[in-house]
Amino acid sequence: MLVETSIAALAGGEKVQVSPGDTLRVNYSFRYRIATTVSLWASLYLYSAGILNRVSGAQEKSAVTLTESTEWQDYPGQIDITIGNIGSGSFGLIVEMPAIPGMEAKIDDCIEVVPAPGITEWIGPLIMIAVMGMMMRMMPREE
């Protein structure tokens, strides 16, 4: 499933819920005026002992080619992050250009990864249906 959001919405307090196998599309924008090709990284992260740890099962890297301009230009773009088998919980999102110091957008605890429904979620209802079926057979029939 494709889940779409933006850096601006997440920074404004939006929380997004995804499951393993989903694709998280993140819309971003930045200003530039020099011609260059830069690497863009997007990743979910957790803090461990105060250190930001990017989750390797939920990150994407791409290259962005910028054309030269005499005026500052907006560059709107999007990057898709495939959510791997990373476990459930609350994660932060970081979109960054590692070659340019300070070029990052980071939002803590904005992505909630929920487990995909498995057999354990279906067992309860299946048992109830089976019990009801057996009870129907035991009930006397009117003729």
Could you please describe the fold and organization of this structure?
The chain has 143 residues and is α/β, with parallel strands linked by helices. The chain has one domain (2-138): Immunoglobulin-like. It contains two helices and eight strands; from the N terminus they run βαβββββββα. The chain has helices at 7-11, 119-138, and strands at residues 2-6, 16-18, 23-32, 36-48, 51-66, 73-82, 89-96, 104-113. The strands form two sheets. It has a five-stranded mixed sheet. A three-stranded mixed sheet has the order 1-3-6. The longest helix is centred in the last third of the chain and has 20 residues, at 119-138. The protein starts with a strand and ends in a 5-residue tail after the last helix.
Give Rg in angstroms: 23 Å
Largest beta-sheet characterization: 5 strands, mixed
Tell me the strand order in the biggest sheet.
Answer: 2-8-7-4-5
CATH first level: which class? Mainly Beta
Low-confidence stretches: none
Identify the overall geometry: elongated
- Structural class comes to alpha/beta
User: What's the architecture, going by CATH?
Assistant: Sandwich
Indicate the percent of residues in helices: 10-25%
Mean pLDDT: 88
Order of helices and strands: EHEEEEEEEH
* Total strand segments: 8
List keywords for this structure.
single chain; 143 residues; alpha/beta; Immunoglobulin-like; 5-stranded mixed beta sheet; 3-stranded mixed beta sheet; 2 helices; elongated
